[in-house]
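BUG: 3D viewer hangs when loading the predicted structure for this chain

Environment: internal workstation, default settings.
Expected: structure renders.
Actual: progress bar stalls at 90%.

Input used:
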Amino acid sequence: MDNNPGSLFTDGQTNTAFYEQEKPGYLRIAGDDRHAFLQRQTTNDINLLSPARSLITVLTSPAGRILDVLWVIDEDEAFGVLTLPGQGEQTFNFLSSRIFFMDKVSLVDASQEICQIDLLGPGASEFLHELGAIRNPQDNETLTIKIAKAPVRVFFQRNTNHHLLIPKEICHQVLNELENNGAAPLSPESYEIMRIETGLPAAGHELTEDYSPLETGFQWTISDNKGCYTGQEGIARQVNYDKITRQLVGLLMSDVPQIGDTLYPLDKEQPVGKITSMALSQRFGPIALAIVKRPFHQPGNELVTHDEEQSITAVTTALPFQ
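Structure tokens produced before the viewer hung:
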């Protein structure tokens, strides 16, 4: 059904699709010092967290570069931490190394206990309502609904997809229930196309230690009044000294590029960016995400990438693609 993911919504086949993340990461942080511990590791203000409100925060290196993007949930006696897909073990090891001997903190890798399903499309909120959500989830809100007679936690933020967090043992039943109620399952290839069309940065592509949160559209996860955290000085320098020199952009391509291709202005040999994600979209043709130096990031700029056989032109565009 998803060979042409762009037509799922435009052709009226459905207004909701779903995708099971292949390697979800989920950590559990407990202990009296869990607030202070996570507060000094990441960019957002953990004090904003509550049982009804989740929080997205970025784990940064001392230089202020992205190590992981964490979705934090208050589990009453502990924090549940949803990592980027595929990052669970790495982030567990990193955070373990940051626990001091005086910290009253325990850390558990609970990735094998959960299943993560992303819900996409213009009808996603209404779809959840029909499944039993008492209302459409608001920004950062955490809801619990029953699907296949089992509790499912739902997280929503306008800059991301809806995330469903499900006990591993009932994942298959929930997937069947979603499809039986009219949502379309996506293959990894189709999910990747829709991710790029939407302009969502991803682990291993844009969300890497090559870039900072300010360069990848995660300004909204940075608190400017929370106190010190690892990477704060690097991020503050970018803000205070106007050093945010690169931005995430969309590219409309003349042909399919390769991830990692270097971008140049048409009339210059100085590189100005790098392609981080690419797809062949049914709606937009060859498209890509890239981190591009300003002022070349502005919509409508023409760039070019070269390989041994051809040159591929690109036009910068705002995200999401329209």
